[in-house]
UniProtKB/TrEMBL annotation:
<dbReference type="GO" id="GO:0003978">
    <property type="term" value="F:UDP-glucose 4-epimerase activity"/>
</dbReference>
<comment type="pathway">
    <text>Carbohydrate metabolism; galactose metabolism.</text>
</comment>
<dbReference type="Pfam" id="PF16363">
    <property type="entry name" value="GDP_Man_Dehyd"/>
</dbReference>
<dbReference type="GO" id="GO:0005829">
    <property type="term" value="C:cytosol"/>
</dbReference>
<keyword id="KW-0413">Isomerase</keyword>
<dbReference type="GO" id="GO:0006012">
    <property type="term" value="P:galactose metabolic process"/>
</dbReference>
<keyword id="KW-0520">NAD</keyword>
<protein>
    <recommendedName>
        <fullName>UDP-glucose 4-epimerase</fullName>
        <ecNumber>5.1.3.-</ecNumber>
    </recommendedName>
</protein>
<comment type="similarity">
    <text>Belongs to the NAD(P)-dependent epimerase/dehydratase family.</text>
</comment>
<feature type="domain" description="NAD(P)-binding">
    <location>
        <begin position="6"/>
        <end position="329"/>
    </location>
</feature>
<keyword id="KW-0119">Carbohydrate metabolism</keyword>
<keyword id="KW-0299">Galactose metabolism</keyword>
<dbReference type="InterPro" id="IPR005886">
    <property type="entry name" value="UDP_G4E"/>
</dbReference>
<dbReference type="InterPro" id="IPR036291">
    <property type="entry name" value="NAD(P)-bd_dom_sf"/>
</dbReference>
<dbReference type="InterPro" id="IPR016040">
    <property type="entry name" value="NAD(P)-bd_dom"/>
</dbReference>
């Protein structure tokens, strides 16, 4: 019997790619999403890409804070596990609107855990972030590093990790994997699904992509005086399809072993500077990305990359793609969908 997986936030960037990989692996998938930062078109395209598996996908437009709607979803299907992506993720917005972030991310998660518990579904994969390492004193970041938060968004990740540990401590039937993502970029190689942020992108590659298609005049490079190879910030970029596959590996681990609450980094273990990433994108796209050098962005760390040993050893998962493939697929998506899932009329 195919296992049923509930995916919260499954219409979003990482969620939609993970839903596709789940379907292709033979899982039944129910997505809930309030479409606050996504489009149902992403799920229509996932269905097309999933071909004969498309009938294993269903969608409910539900907000996690609406507990009775959540109850209805759990009453209609018995889930083997939940992958919990749903949340708000813009660092700057979280500083401006902390209560929105605490309300959405934390209350949404507590509701989800309560309803899961009430329905006897106690197997969870949660989307955490490398942001919980704050400004790491050394690299690569191992899962044992001290944790800190530099902003309300990061604090929601830290709190939710702690909530998950407490819940599992209180009831050993729970099996939980916390996945700390490094910097997801790229798109499905088909170019039919990818990242489509609302408004001005906060993150590097969505911004670069919008410059390449002519929606923005130049990229502002935040900080050229870091102690790095070329002075710009260094991050661990990971192809979103590799990241999606990491979730399948985590599910297998949950189904096959007696896990309690474990944390794994999902990264490549390689650090790439802003200028290296821009050069790789220029090569992949044949487009020049005009640059404007600027001061550091407040709150940014200098160098962040993952230790990948624990995930390799225990999840049997390792990223396959490098930055050239990430940029190739990002450009394929961007050139086919210069306005994402929307039209120029929706442009701000
Ligand atoms: P995304 O915004 O594309 O996807 C999140 C989805 O959750 C969206 O479709 C949104 O509509 C939905 N959502 C938000 N609040 C909801 C609610 N209350 N009820 C129902 N649906 C809700 O973001 P993403 O990049 O796909 O990120 C997925 C998860 O991974 C998030 O939890 C994010 O914090 C985490 N993460 C992302 C990154 C990154 O750089 N993209 C890095 C580390 C961690
Ligand atoms: N950068 C620019 N110009 C831009 C955007 C980014 O130069 O317009 C630089 C940043 O200064 C940084 C690098 O590109 O050096 C990467 O920046 P991102 O915003 O893409 O990624 P961050 O590592 O700063 O943060 C992101 C998310 C966090 C998350 C973290 C790890 O925003 O929430 O990845 O997953 F925690």
């Amino acid at each position: 019997m195919a296992k049923s997986i509930l995916v919260t936030g499954g219409a979003g960037y990482i969620g939609s790619h993970t839903v596709l990989q789940l379907l292709l692996c033979g899982f039944k998938v129910v997505v809930i999403d309030n479409l606050d930062n996504s489009s149902e078109i992403a799920l229509h395209r996932v269905k097309k890409l999933a071909a004969q598996f498309s009938t294993n996908l269903s969608f409910h437009q539900v907000d996690l804070r609406d507990k009775s709607a959540l109850e209805m979803v759990f009453s209609s299907t018995k889930f083997d596990a939940v992958i919990h992506f749903a949340g708000l993720k813009a660092v700057g917005e979280s500083v401006q609107k902390p209560l929105l972030y605490y309300n959405n991310n934390i209350i949404g998660t507590v509701n989800l855990l309560e309803v899961m518990s009430a329905h006897g579904c106690k197997t969870l994969v949660f989307s955490s972030s490398a942001t919980v390492y704050g400004w790491p004193k050394e690299v690569p970041c191992t899962e044992e590093f001290p944790l800190s938060a530099a902003n309300p968004y990061g604090r929601t990740k830290l709190f939710i990790e702690e909530i998950c540990r407490d819940v599992q401590n209180s009831d050993s039937e729970w099996k939980i994997i916390l996945l700390r993502y490094f910097n997801p970029v790229g798109a499905h190689p088909s170019g039919h699904i990818g990242e489509d942020p609302r408004g001005v992108p906060n993150n590097l590659m969505p911004y670069v992509q919008q410059v390449a298609v002519g929606r923005r005049p130049h990229l502002t490079v935040y900080g050229t005086d870091y102690n790095t190879k070329d002075g710009t910030g260094v991050r661990d970029y990971i192809h979103v399809v590799d990241l999606a596959d990491g979730h399948i590996a985590a599910l297998q681990k949950l189904f096959d072993s007696n896990i309690a609450c474990e944390v794994y980094n999902l990264g490549t273990g390689k650090g790439t500077s802003v200028l290296e990433m821009v050069a790789a994108f220029e090569k992949a796209s044949g487009k020049e990305i005009p640059l404007e050098m600027a001061g550091r962005r407040p709150g940014d760390a200098e160098v962040v990359y993952a230790s990948t040993e624990k995930a390799e050893r225990e999840l049997n998962w390792k990223a396959k793609f490098g930055i050239d493939e990430m940029c190739r697929d990002q450009w394929n998506w961007a050139s086919k969908n210069p306005y994402g899932y929307g039209s120029p009329d929706n442009e701000d």
